[in-house]
Amino acid sequence: MSTLKIAIQKSGRLSEKSLQLLESCGIKISNGDRKLKAIASNFPVEILYLRDDDIPQYVEQGVADIGILGENEVWEKDKNVANITQLGFASCKLSLAVPKDEIYTDLTFFQNKRIATSYPKILTQFFVSKNINVIIEEISGSVEIATGIGLADAIFDIVSTGSTLLMNGLKEVEIVTNSQAVLIANQNLTIEKQEILNKLLFRIDSYRNAKENKYILLNAPNESITEICKVLPGIKSPTILPLVEQGWSSLHSVVKEDDYWDVVDQLKMLGAEGILIIPIEKMIK
Ligand code: ATP
Ligand code: MG
Q1: pTM summary value
Q2: Which domains does the chain have, with CATH numbers?
Q3: Is the CB of 88 within 6 Å of ligand 1?
Q4: Which of 164, 203, 259, 265 could form a disulfide with 25 if both were Cys (CB 3.0 to 4.6 A apart)?
C-alpha cells in the first residue's frame, strides 16, 4: 500500500504547529526523538523532518510528496511544485527596514542602495517591478545586524512584531508581502497518493473550519425569530426548538469566530437570552 511522505521543518518556528496540525487531523505520529523520519500508526503517511529551505526541492523531486513551510520559502526557491492550500499559521511580513535615524519618504530612497537579505529572489522581483535599481547582498542569517556592521544601507527580512528591528536600531518602512504556512505538493503524485492527500486536505479543512467557527445556542421570544434568523446564517439555517415556556424557542447555529461579539450584541438587542457560545471540535461541510 502507498504512503504519502510529508516533509515538515525539523526544528524551528514551523515544527510544533505543523505537527499539531497533523495531530488535529487525527494522525498519530509516534517518535519522540525526531531523527529523520517517523511513520504514523493510523494513517498512511510518513513524516520527514528537514530544514525548511530544502523542502521545495525535495517536493519537486518527489523525495517528499508534500511539504509544509512558509510561503516566503516557496517563493524564494521557486521550484515546480503545486501550491495547494494556506494553513493559517506562522503569519509574518517580509519588510524593508532602514536605520531609524534615516529620513524615509518613499521607495526611491532605495535607488542604488545596498540591501542585505536572505530572500534575494523575492526582493529582486519586487524592485524590478518598481523599476528601481538596488544592490542585493545575500546573507543567510542575522540580517538585522547588516547595517550596523556596514555591510548594507538597509535590510529586507521577516518581521512579526518588529522588536528585533528596534533592538538593532532599525525601522520598518515598507511591507513587501505577507506570508503564512502553506501546503505544497509534488506535481506528479500517483492516484493512490492523491487519494491520501485528498483525505488529509478534507481533514485539514474540517479542522480549520471548526477553529474559525463557534456553536451558538440561545433562547428567544417567538416573535423575534425571523429577525434573529437574519443575524444567524448557520451552515444551512438555524435549528429552532420550542421551549417548555410558552412563546419561547431555543435556536442553535454556527457563527464565525471573528463575528461573534457583533452577533451577540445584535441578538441581545433582539431579545435573546441565555446565549451560549461553544467551541467546535470538527466541522464537516
Ligand atoms: P531552518 O533551520 O529549518 O532553515 P529557519 O531558521 O530558516 O529554519 P525559522 O526561523 O524557524 O527558519 O522560520 C521558519 C519559517 O517560519 C519562516 O520561513 C517563516 O515563514 C516563518 N517565520 C519566521 N519568523 C517568523 C516570525 N517572527 N513570526 C511568524 N512566522 C515566522
Ligand atoms: Mg531555513
Answers
A1: 0.86
A2: 4-89+181-189 (3.40.190.10), 92-179 (3.40.190.10), 213-279 (3.30.70.120)
A3: no
A4: 203
